[in-house]
Amino acid sequence: MSPPVHVEVVQKLQSRASKDYIKEMVHSLLINFVSISPGSSLTEKDLEDNLDLTEHVQMISFCDIDHETEVSVTQAEFVYHIYKLDSFGAETDTMTDSSTGEEFAAADMWALPSQEFHGLWETLIYDTKLKEDTVRFVETAFDFADKGVDPNVVGWNRVVLLHGPPGTGKTSLCRALAQKLSVRLSDRFPRARLVEINAHGLFSKWFAESGKLVARLFERLEEIVADKRLLACVLVDEVESLAHARRAALSGLEPSDSIRAVNALLTQLDRLRRRPNALVLTTSNVTGAIDVAFVDRADIKRRVGPPSARATYEILRGCCSELMTRGVVAPREPVFELRLLEDSRFAESESSRPSLRLWEVALEAAAALMSGRALRRLPFLARALHARQPGAPDLLHFVMALRAALHQYLADAAELEDDSCPVSN
Ligand SMILES: Nc1ncnc2c1ncn2[C@@H]1O[C@H](COP(=O)(O)OP(=O)(O)OP(=O)(O)O)[C@@H](O)[C@H]1O
Fold first, then answer.
1. Please, are residues 138 and 279 in contact by the beta-carbon 8 Å criterion?
2. Whose CA is nearest to atom 12 of ligand 1?
3. Contacts of 387 (CB under 8 A, 6+ apart)
4. Rounded distance between C-alpha atoms, residue 298 and residue 157, angstroms
5. Residue limits of the AAA+ ATPase domain (predicted)?
6. Is the CB of 370 under 6 A from ligand 1?
7. Cβ of 18: how many Cβ atoms within 10 Å?
8. SS (HEC) of the chain
9. Which of 140, 286, 311, 422 could form a disulfide with 307 if both were Cys (CB 3.0 to 4.6 A apart)?
């Protein structure tokens, strides 16, 4: 039997309807469809003919984790996730250094699913199964925890490490993953939080105070995880900074307080990962071994690299579509899916020309190992510097401007390298 299709339904904040009522309405809509396309969504505009639905529903999305191709509705089993997005944004947990009175952000905290991360999952494009695998790993780990599988017999844990070069989407993927889990696991965990620990900040300044700060931070975390029906995702970005701080302390460059603080943080994280409702997410820009024993134990370790040519094309295609939707590039015309270009054997026609030029830009950018972050900046540079006419450029002109922006970016990066400065991606 094929896996169910997960249908994610965002309920409007002001709607007071019950989840069951919404589920029934959405189900009655879907059974009239012939097939469902995983990864696609229905926005309010698509639903505007159905007044009942538009009163309560903001968006319906079909999850692409379990299916790659169209699913026929007659054969589909639907699993519904009805949720509202939290619109309060991050709550910053500030701490005060008692010796100087200075405040600094020790952690940011979001209630999930959050408005801020809505749609983030879809914007991240990898052509390996990185996103899907990561969700499955974590879901399996929660399932093992639920069933009481002894981790000493079958090795598993809920520590994720994403490592790779800067700007490749590691932090974004951790946030998107936490959001996705808060939706998919909402039966088990009706409440969810994401806590981002500013590890770099914790250890960069107040070494003497760090130990106390860590202790206070974890007291708060303990309060959060004490609620067993709450999914607590704790993100530690640039986890290698812990190893650096420890090494610096060991070599006598930093006061010995710092080593105690780093060790305290690692011990606390280690304790946290044993809580059945906690998930520890870590990222690192260091690709080799990170000398932090705690991270060594992560079962879920994945390298996140710069986007391939295919993923690059998809990222730029999404940027072009967004700019056409907003009228920055006009008129609206199709940017072909790569699959369509391949089906037509890359034959050039009036309508395929912009897509073919875009594919050439993607090939060049991927060959230069350009990061996702740098790619997402190219359209802005293209419009600002290389398509400067007063009116909106058409798609073909805009793609040529993208190519010019890419060449300028590569030339600037080469110059920076000549000056032996690290290139910021
Ligand atoms: N594969 C990708 N697909 C789509 N967007 C991407 C991809 N990789 C990076 N980006 C975009 O690049 C930006 C930076 O991503 P993010 O900060 O998550 O990267 P990172 O790897 O954590 O970087 P750093 O290590 O420097 O913090 C985000 O806006 C993200 O959407």
1. yes
2. 373
3. 393, 397, 398, 401
4. 7
5. 156-308
6. no
7. 11
8. CCCCEEEEEEECCCCCCCHHHHHHHHHHHHCCCCEECCCCEEECCCCCCCHHHHHHEEEEEECCCCCCCCEEHHHCCEEEEEECCECCCCEEEEEECCCCCCEEEEEEEEEECEHHHCCHHHHCCCCCCHHHHHHHHHHHHHHHHHHCCCCCCCCCCCEEEEECCCCCCHHHHHHHHHHHHHHHCCCCCCEEEEEEECHHHHHHCCHHHHHHHHHHHHHHHHHHHCCCCEEEEEEECCCHHHHHHHHHHHCCCCCHHHHHHHHHHHHHHHHHCCCCCEEEEEEECCCCCCCCHHHHCCCEEEECCCCCHHHHHHHHHHHHHHHHHCCCCCCCCCCCCHHHHHHCCCCCCCCCHHHHHHHHHHHHHHHCCCCHHHHHHHHHHHHHHHCCCCCCCCHHHHHHHHHHHHHHHHHHHHHHHHCCCCCCC
9. 311
Residue 172 beta carbon below 6 angstroms from any ligand 1 atom: yes
Lowest average pLDDT, out of 26-30, 42-46, 94-98, 308-312, goes to: 94-98
Q: Indicate if the pLDDT at residue 348 is higher than 80.
A: yes
Convert the pLDDT of each residue in 357-406 to its tens digit.
999 999 999 999 999 999 999 999 999 999 888 899 999 999 999 999 99
Mutation choice for ligand 1 from 125, 161, 172, CB with most ligand atoms inside 8 A: 172
**Which of 126-140, 188-202, 282-296, 305-319 is predicted with the least confidence, judged by mean pLDDT?**
282-296
Q: What distance in angstroms lies between residue 306's CA and the mean position of ligand 1's atoms?
A: 9
